[in-house]
Amino acid sequence: MNQITVTLQPVGRRIVIERGATLLEAAQRAGVEMVASCGGMGVCSTCKVRLIQGRVTPPVETELEELGEELIRAGYRLACQTEPLEDVRVEIPPESLVAGQSLQVEGREGRVNLDPPVVAIDLQLMPPSLDDLRSDLTRVNAVLQERGLGPLAAGPRLLGALSQQLRQENWQVRLAVRREGEASGLVSVLPRGARLVGLAMDLGSTKLALFLVDLESGALLAQTGVMNPQISFGEDVVSRIAYANRGEEQRKQLQTRLVEIINQTLTELCQREGLCADQIVDVVAVGNTAMHHLFAGLPVAPLGHAPYTPVVSEPMNFPAAEIGLQVAPGAQIYLPPNIAGYVGADHVAALIATRSYLAAGRTALLVDIGTNTEISLIHRGQIYACSCASGPAFEGAHIHDGMRAAPGAIERVHLAEGQVRVVTIGGQAPVGICGSGILNAVAELLDAGVIDARGVLRAAHSRVRPANGKAEFVLADTTETAHGREIVVTRKDVNEIQLAKGAIRAGLEILLKEAGIPAEQVEDFIVAGAFGTHLDLASALRVGMFPTLPLERFHQVGNAAGVGARQMLLSRGLRQEAAEVAREVTYIELTTRPDFTPTFVECMYFT
């Protein structure tokens, strides 16, 4: 039998695959978005599934190492390493699904002077007669000229819509027009009174944040967050670059899945708000350089090896229809400039959004925390920037019982008098631990003396026990968890936090050194990003992720990149400012600095 049916629960999907495909490939083809942190290499255990029915290939050595014999006996397997031999039914546990997770999309707002590139033009025209045989376009252009605007530039589709709308609406019409040079680019033809709406997007490696904005008032109409479906093809951008470089089909697949989920989400938002796609007349999208390239359909091969140069660093404008985005027929997508291969337009947007902190020449650090953390130091009008490979630990990946921020994830830990108390998202019984939870747990274990400066677990605590020759700390026992398995913190988990916090702190130290100032001189420490929103600052300071500064200097601003994208949607001036900011940045490539490795090693230790 060459064809095999795979049934995926609890999502209720069924897919027919060819013999030789893995369960992960089956899920991807069925549109089930599973976490696959390592891109299917079998070294992370995030694509864990449980076999319910049917025969599959025997466990490989990687599975025995990642899952252990007990889980294997219970039917658990790594989807990326397991091939079905006959029709099978598998269960995907909550921690292996990207859906149902807590998504942070909000950010701290600032005031913007409204000057959008696309504006509304309301027209009342005289209908044609035997004495006035001018074409519809000639009539429109005559009125536009009276208002000091250039003639309309439009293709057949929009001109046809214009002609129909004029006759249906008694020669009244609202035009969405892009102001570009001497011409007026026709974007959409709408009924009188219809809102002009812009779409701003923060295309994160993990999460996508979408915002609908009224272009005439600047009001935020709707916002939502969804998981980036590309996670099924690799947790981080390095894995996705490797996947895209397998061939044109794979690169196109990453773009297609991204555009599909955006279109699906847009449809839901428009239905909820009583809008139609033709009202979405302008788009601003920001993301790291890899996401920027994958969204635009650009090659990412140069980003996969030194010197990590982008295809384009300048701002881009191109028709939304070119990539199949379902918005107004004449709408364009604006992508702000990138700074470097691993510091992209999202960081430029964050700089735009947080510029209020830079008044009066204040010294500031902007840290946008994620799998890849971007940092900028602003001092005496100069901007120094770098990128740190902080890894996916803050997303719950590469952690023994790690998961994303979903109901049942431990997000806070408190140790007192030998007792452990955990707080979960949604107040549910624990099923795993998310990024903020593991950071908080490590800080608490440090304070309790359970972890030493090297990150070694000491055996003095009653909850520390040996496991496979190494120590682990039991956060929740079998009677407390929803799945009946213990949730533990291992030495490897602690090491993942050391690697992540060490990379960020080393990047900070290198930038401070480049500017020639001590950390104490930083007046504003701005923490951005979804993880930064939920970050417990006391825990971050305790583990040494950030320099010890007064807490009042820290500002947690949420999704600054999303705020910057919304602001550029409303202001041509800010788009120009973004281009100027990107040109002014002095980018520091950490991998070429001889002092980076020793600084990184030193920053891994706890103090």
TrEMBL record:
Pfam families, alphabetized: Fer2 (PF00111), RACo_C_ter (PF14574), RACo_linker (PF17650), Raco_middle (PF17651)
Domain 2Fe-2S ferredoxin-type: 2-96
Gene3D superfamilies in UniProt: 3.10.20.30, 3.10.20.880, Domain of unknown function (DUF4445) (3.30.420.480)
Domain of life: Bacteria
InterPro entries linked to this entry: 2Fe-2S_ferredoxin-like_sf (IPR036010), 2Fe-2S_ferredoxin-type (IPR001041), ATPase_NBD (IPR043129), Beta-grasp_dom_sf (IPR012675), Corrinoid_activation_enz (IPR052911), Raco-like_middle (IPR041414), Raco-like_middle_sf (IPR042259), RACo_C (IPR027980)
GO molecular function annotations of the record: iron-sulfur cluster binding
SUPFAM superfamilies, alphabetized: 2Fe-2S ferredoxin-like, Actin-like ATPase domain
PANTHER family linked: IRON-SULFUR CLUSTER PROTEIN (PTHR42895:SF2), IRON-SULFUR CLUSTER-BINDING PROTEIN-RELATED (PTHR42895)
Protein name (Swiss-Prot/TrEMBL): DUF4445 domain-containing protein
Organism whose genome encodes this protein: Anaerolinea thermolimosa
